[in-house]
Amino acid sequence: MAMTMTGEVDLPASRAVVWEKLNDPAVLKDCIPGCESLERQGDGFVATAKVKVGPVAATFKGNVALLDLDPPNGYRIEGSGEGGIAGFAKGGAVVKLQEIDPANTRLVYNVEAQVGGKIAQLGARLIDGVAKKMADQFFESFAQAVKSAAPAAAAAAVASAAPAQARPLPQLRAVTINFPPGWESGG
Amino acid sequence: MTATGIGAPVRRKEDFRFITGKGRYVDDINRPGQAYAYFLRSPHAHATINKIDTSAALKEPGVVAILTGDDVAADKVGGLICGWMIHNKDGSPMKGGAHPALAHGKVRYVGDHVAVVIAETLAQARDASEKIEVDYGVLPAAASIESARKAGAAAIHDVAPDNQVYDWHIGDKAAADAAFAQAKHVTKLDIVNNRLVPNPMEPRAAVGDYDMGSDSFTLYTTSQNPHVARLVLSAFIGIAPENKLRVIAPDVGGGFGSKIFIYAEETICVWAAKKVGRPVKWTSDRTEAFLSDAHGRDHVTHAEMALGDNGKILGLRVKTRANMGAYLSTFASSVPTYLYAPLLSGQYNIPAIYAEVEAVYTNTAPVDAYRGAGRPEATFVIERLAEVAARELHMDPAEFRRRNFVTQFPHQTPVIMAYDAGDYDASLTLAQKMHDTAGFLARKAASAANGKLRGIGYSAYIEACGIAPSAAVGSLGAGVGLWESAEVRVNPVGTVEILTGSHSHGQGHETTFAQLVSSRLGIPLENVSIVHGDTDKVQMGMGTYGSRSGAVGMSAIVKALDKIEAKAKKVAAHVLEAAEGDIEFKDGKFTVKGTDKSADFGTVALNAYIAHKFNGQELEPGLKESAFWDPTNFTFPAGVHICELEIDPATGVIKIDRWTAVDDFGNVINPMIVEGQVHGGIAQGVGQALLEGAVYDESGQLLTASFMDYTMPRADDLPSYNVGMTVTPCPSNPLGIKGCGEAGAIASPPAVINAITNALGHENITMPATPEKVWRAAQSAVRKQAAE
Questions:
Q1: Domain identity same for B487 and B616
Q2: N or C: which end of chain B has fewer CB within 10 A?
Q3: Is A114 at the interface with chain B, CB within 8 A?
Q4: Model pLDDT for residues B265-285, shown as the tens digit of each residue
């Protein structure tokens, strides 16, 4: 089944820093929820990740390729993974980086994915929630990663916040998930 | 009528064991040394299998074997078959693609069988299957009829490059066109008959066992027709000759058609049992059942009715596209053709009918017979058309039907069927009276005062059961005969075993068949045992589907009982020292005409076996007879269902307020069981109309693969039914039985949709009429009502 998800998130770092982190396997591995390994292979990566959608838990193994590289404006990320009897997932995301100011970057993403097998059979109604949660977790971790790499921006962010209270990171601006027509009314 | 005889509402003998958990189903059967099978299924709707790497999986704990399509091919295990040949309009045969028991080179639907893991435990088999690496080459998938028939769509089978299985027709096109040319009015409808998942309470299961000493196989399987399973597994799939293959279908918890078919799983279990030298067991889980049990319905139809003066139907033109899924299941090809179009005449005198049916492969689970099988689809077409035609002509829908009813019998329709007996007006009149249709307008006004929309809908259905004379179905392409067998074994003490080729999986044969024998032989019900479901006990049989067990199965028993009576009279003549011609048999007693000399049934049975009172050379000892009954016609149950419901326009929720069913099933053996069949059938039909629908997305993923997403009818969705009966005995069998198993599911969907559209005031609603759809439609209806 097809799903799409679009969103944008503001990150407290320059485009150059965000771009660098987006291409750093170690950072991606730490940020992708459930990711167990992520290694560079050619232009892309091979990865394994544990994912749980409702009653279906699986370890997905797959390849991720980075395409249309346009530093520091963005890229297209495409991948597919097999989750054994849980099914498969494949799809991609167009990621764009927009400069808000020299220390802050807006990341806009547009995901189109297909899932199949048990995940679609049992998890269809749950996938939007899981996908949104995984996106939230990813960007929370990713914001932390770019923040630690951008001390000036982070310091500025902390300075602007109340002393005892860290600024909530990241600021997820919008997430929209679209299912194919007919699903909810399919009955 | 006695308390346990024909016509008595005897409580079901089998229910004690079922409701106390003492039934013995396939999953209850465990063989020494048994291993467990787990099927790795395709997550893709359409893909080539480039490579299957089982090396890591084979090292997993407990794994006994992993088998793939290559092993099936190497052992020359035959493919699964479709047993009904349909010919195209041009006379060429349908295009049946190969259906290997494990996919070979290609998968064609989500759930297709890629490999089987056999291990010491089910958990080990499932865990090991995770380690199988399959390299798929994903192909474009077509999940719907439209996408499969689109130019350039990927071919699912090489033999059918455009995914068309057949293009069939029936009736007289010229006569139908002439009728339309004369029509005063033409009613047109586009109809979708939604795809259903059968969902019997007990999922499918199989245990395959191989005995090396005798080189013979035993298969325990959830089958409605174990002999047909043996025939197919033996003659076509080639597991073993019939004398080396025993098939046992013990207690089976519902089938609704889905357990007629011979599937990959039981084929693999029985084949693998010899290959791995262990009994192999498989039990479907619920999602596997959603994925791989043959689905039902899934038609898209355009239908037109030509009308003349005074609401007379002049002709019918129907064009249907049927989704067959990825493979042709065992009887799939017959369902949208000979089980469908010949019923399009309904209860009506329609001079000209022409129907065209195109069957299409798609990347979805195979579609085959499901409770009613073709007849619900036909009834939905004709009964929706009848209702809409009446509305367009501003006629009362009951009166419209009455004017067009067949009243003279026999009646030859333009589409094969020769209706032999019926009184359709009697059923309609009784249904209207029981329902209080006269009070409908007052009830509608009361609903309107409460802000609710009330509607009433009729369905005057007819179906064909039995199914038919073997020679007749053979001429239509069936690969088998549709007779039934019976053997009556009278034991020396006068108890009786009935061996029947019918199979009970919820129908209550242990009770109704015993009632017949009890009535006929005048012996207590508990002295009669019904034996079925074992090919080593019952020699041959065709099984249970098409509401045939009463009309055909019991007729075979009657024929065998006739022979028993004839033989017993010969024995009684010796016992009573009288001439055979003077012996009369009544109420369990043999008497000599004009005397007080008598012998009871048990005494005669004992004498048949001790054989002291007659010359064993002149009269064979023993009392055992068998018979085969081949029907002389289809049987034609018919009736009228009336659904009345109330819609809450604020929520779209429908409450069925009253339901009246008046059925003519011919003579009835057990009215309580018949009423139960009617209840269950209506529940399934209401499920189709309001709740159920299998949904594949465009990539061929099944989105409704569990009870979370596929809505089954529940008690609170259903009213208490008003069930009545009229009787015109069936002339084509000795008991006058027509059959009742499918009627409710056939009759009810159009009754519901006719009631909804009556309430809403427009015709545009598709099944399942979920609250969302009804709410959307109700909003415009409310606006219209306000404007009036």
A1: yes
A2: C
A3: yes
A4: 999 999 999 999 999 999 999
B649 with B737, same domain?
yes
- Going through B670-719 in order, the beta strands assigned E by DSSP cover none
Report domain extents, chain A. Answer: 2-178
- Do residues B650 and B619 both lie within one domain? no
Give the mean model confidence (pLDDT) for residues B457-465. Answer: 97
Q: What CA–CA distance (Å, rounded) separates B203 from B286?
A: 7
- Any chain B CB within 8 A of the CB of A5? no
Q: Which helix (H) or strand (E) holds B232?
A: none
Name which of B770, B700, B457 is nearest B778 in CA terms.
B770
Considering only the beta carbons, identify the residue of A1, A116, A182 that sits closest to B44. Answer: A116
Of B602, B629, B656, at which residue does a domain stop?
B629
CATH number at residue B62: 3.90.1170.50
* B642 lies in the same domain as B668: yes
Residue A123 has a pLDDT of 77
Q: Does residue B29 register a pLDDT over 60?
A: yes
Residue A102 touches partner B, C-beta closer than 8 Å: no
Beta partners for residue B206, in sequence order: B221, B282
Q: Residue B61 sits in which domain range? A: 17-139+201-254+259-292
B96-126 burial, b at 16+ Cβ within 10 Å, e below that, comes to bbebbbbbbebbbbbbbbbbbbbbeebebbb
Residues B142 and B163: beta-carbon distance below 8 Å: yes
Cβ-defined contact of B773 to A185 (cutoff 8 Å):
yes
CA distance to partner chain A, nearest, from residue B219 (Å): 27
How many domains does the structure of chain B reveal?
Answer: 3
What does CATH list as the number for A2-178? Answer: 3.30.530.20
* Chain B contact set for A121 (CB, 8 A): 110, 287, 290-291, 701-703, 705-706
**pLDDT-derived band at A176, boundaries 50, 70, 90:** low
Region of poorest pLDDT, from A118-127, B188-197, B227-236, B367-376: A118-127
Residues B731 and B781 in one domain: yes
- Pick from B110, B695, B701: which is nearest to A186 by CB? B695
Which of A80-89, B22-31, B211-220, B415-424 has the weakest average pLDDT? A80-89
DSSP of B593-637 = TTSS-EEEHHHHHHHHHH--SS-TTTS-SS-EEEEEE--SS-B--
DSSP class of B97: P
B683 and B702, same domain (yes or no): yes
Q: Is the pLDDT of residue A184 over 70?
A: no
CB contact under 8 A, A88 and B698: no
DSSP of B519-582, one letter per residue?
Answer: HHHT--GGGEEEE-SBTTTS-----S-TT-IIIIIIHHHHHHHHHHHHHHHHHHHHHTTS-GGG
Total-model pTM: 0.93
Q: Are residues B528 and B667 located together in one domain of the fold?
A: no
Contact yes or no for A82/A98 (Cβ under 8 A):
no
Q: Identify any residues that bridge with A110 across adjacent strands, giving them in sequence order.
A: A6, A94
Is A181's pLDDT higher than 50?
no
Residue B656 shares a structural domain with residue B751:
yes
Indicate which CATH number applies to the domain containing B601. 3.30.365.10
**Distance between CA B463 and CA B483 in Å, rounded?**
19
Q: Is residue B319 part of a domain?
A: no
Q: Does B569 fall in a domain?
A: yes
Cβ distance B287 to A118 less than 8 Å, yes or no, reads yes
Q: Is residue B564 part of a domain?
A: yes
Last residue of a domain, one of B613, B629, B645: B629
Give SS3 for B514. Answer: helix
Task: Determine the length of chain B.
Answer: 788
In this model, does residue B684 exceed pLDDT 90? yes
**Tens of pLDDT, residues B187-225:** 999 999 999 999 999 999 999 999 999 999 999 999 999
Q: What value does the mean pLDDT take over residues B748-763?
A: 95
